[in-house]
Inverse folding.
């Protein structure tokens, strides 16, 4: 006997409720597959509650030049959420150990607020299984975990060995003030430090830490990585 839920198709504002329901209903795990991430408050709260319940939360985002807000990535890391970057990701799937929801909706505030969205709550267990297999297979096999030592370090002691995972959403360091930045070797200075750097514009001026691992190193704007990190990137 196959049990179909009473209602399986949701549109517009109801989609948001279903997505939050998947997160709030999770007892073991939540998987969020969404090319783009920009959490609205209710979404962040739901994830925070799931983490507190001991739920394993994983996010699969697109490895893209459009990066999620850095403060949200920091927040996810500090809540032990595992973040993965996936090449060419376009699917949107929200699931826990019981429920599989396929949707048009990205996990972003703008989608939650004012997009026309649709979602299908998969009722047929065989279909749900097929979706889980797709996530486990195709999506996971194209995914690289965004490196973090579980918390984005306020100090530079916890290194971030980016060389093992060259993904666009990875986090690095300002080579002058050690502040966290997205890992982007062509932009290894934060805005403030870039402004002061630009007064002289000397690409070979010695800076303080490696853009990737945050360790003290002989680096410059032109060569922002320490030797070990540089060789890992090759
Ligand atoms: Zn800086
Ligand atoms: Zn380094």
């Amino acid at each position: 006997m196959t049990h179909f839920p009473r209602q399986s198709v949701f549109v517009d504002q109801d989609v948001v409720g279903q997505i939050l329901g998947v997160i709030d209903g999770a007892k073991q795990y939540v998987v969020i597959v969404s090319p783009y991430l920009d959490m609205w408050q209710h979404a962040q709260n739901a994830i925070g509650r799931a983490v507190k319940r001991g739920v394993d939360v994983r996010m699969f985002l697109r490895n893209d030049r459009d990066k999620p807000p850095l403060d949200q990535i920091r927040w996810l890391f500090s809540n032990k959420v595992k973040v993965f970057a996936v090449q060419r990701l376009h699917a949107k799937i929200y699931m826990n150990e019981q429920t599989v929801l396929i949707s048009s909706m990205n996990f972003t505030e703008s989608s939650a607020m004012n997009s026309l969205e649709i979602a299908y709550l998969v009722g047929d267990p065989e279909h749900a299984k097929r979706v889980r297999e797709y996530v486990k297979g195709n999506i996971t096999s194209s995914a690289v975990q965004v490196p973090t030592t579980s918390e984005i370090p306020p100090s530079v002691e916890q290194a971030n060995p980016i060389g093992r995972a060259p993904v666009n959403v990875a986090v690095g360091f300002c080579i002058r003030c050690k502040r966290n930045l997205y890992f982007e070797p062509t932009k290894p200075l934060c805005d403030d430090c870039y402004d002061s750097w630009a007064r002289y514009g000397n690409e070979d001026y010695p800076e303080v830490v490696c853009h990737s691992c945050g360790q003290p190193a002989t680096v410059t704007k032109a060569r922002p990585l320490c030797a070990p990190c540089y060789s890992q990137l090759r």
User: Anything to note?
Assistant: Residues 9-145 form a domain with the Endonuclease; Chain A fold (CATH 3.30.870.10). The first strand starts at residue 9 and ends at 11. Residues 174, 176-177, 179, 189-190, 192-193 surround zinc ion (ligand 1) (CB under 6 Å).
